[in-house]
Amino acid sequence: MTASSPVHRTGLATSLAGPLPMAPSDWGALALLGLIWGGSFFFGKVAIAEIPPLTMVLTRVAIGALALWVIARARGVHLPLNRRLMAEFMVLAVIANIIPFGLIAWSQQHLPSGLSSILNAATPLFTVLVAQAFTHDEKFTVGKLVGVSLGFLGVAVMMGPALLGQLGGHQLPAQLAAIGATVSYGFAAVYSRRFRHLPPLGIAMAQLASSSLLLLPAVALIDRPWLLPAPSLPVIGALLGLGVLSTGLAYILYFRIVGRNGATNISLVTFLVPVSAILLGALVLDEALEPREFAGFAIIALGLAAIDGRPARWVRGKMG
User: Fold this and answer.
1) What's the rounded Cα separation, in Å, for the pair 286 and 270?
2) Cβ-count burial of 18 within 10 angstroms (0-12 exposed, 13-18 middle, 19+ buried)?
């Protein structure tokens, strides 16, 4: 499907009218994205043991861009690029990839992955604030504020007091870096709305290609990766997982949800990332689930229901 196909024009007319309510298929796409991004913290932790942060980020976005280019060629998807659009993709690359990926990669050298998940869950809060300031159709609602607060609380409960007790102290710079990444993600989610008239595959490919071009000179100057030891097989596998799954395919889902459902709804994925990581640990590694994790799951579910709004409308209808 190309950018000028009739199907795409229909999707454009719908999405530009404003964010749509989350349909079951949208919640499914969000859950799948949370599952894919749940693995990114694991892949990143493996890769950062041998690869400097900037080189890891460049490798991640370059592999993702290459994978999406192959898919786009096979499907006949192309973008009507011009100078203005290319400049906008460069901006998106900086705030959606280079800044947050770099900050997260650096912070992962100093923070446990559970604490990173808690700080990452602040993304919806900053997205709601940015959307309030810069959009006309994603303003504050009581449901959004209650839902975002419950979601963040649920992540904190799920991770437990031991991790919360690590906030501050000598890890404060790394924690601030992780929070800085969430602020950048909030701006990126709102900025991404301007690309709603383009196919998600094309947006993701252009964003990652732009990130690769911008990062290449810095990596060559600072890290000089040709002087680094060859990575081990586990690190190569982690980089492939980061690039193909957690970046390339993930951003196709990301831009699909942004185009249909808006910036605030896509940011909710950060509530689902730690949930998916814990459930994967239980299913794949046979890790035991603790009562606080079930409590956290329930609080997050309440938060998502508050943002969705349909349960509350159903209750009001029954009472009326």
Assistant:
1) 24
2) exposed
What tokens were used for 15? Answer: 């999405």
Half-sphere exposure of 108 (CA within 13 A, CB side): 27
CA 147 – CA 184 distance, rounded (Å): 21
pLDDT: is 283 or 284 the higher one? 283
- pLDDT of residue 10 exceeding 50: no
The residue with tokens 């790394």 is 174
User: Tokens at residue 203, please?
Assistant: 């947006």
Nearest of 66, 75, 110, 35 to residue 239 by alpha carbon = 66
* Percent with pLDDT over 90 in the chain: 33
Distance of alpha carbon 182 from alpha carbon 96, whole angstroms: 10
Task: Please compute Rg for the chain using Cα positions.
Answer: 19
Q: Say how many C-beta atoms besides its own lie within 10 A of residue 79's C-beta.
A: 19
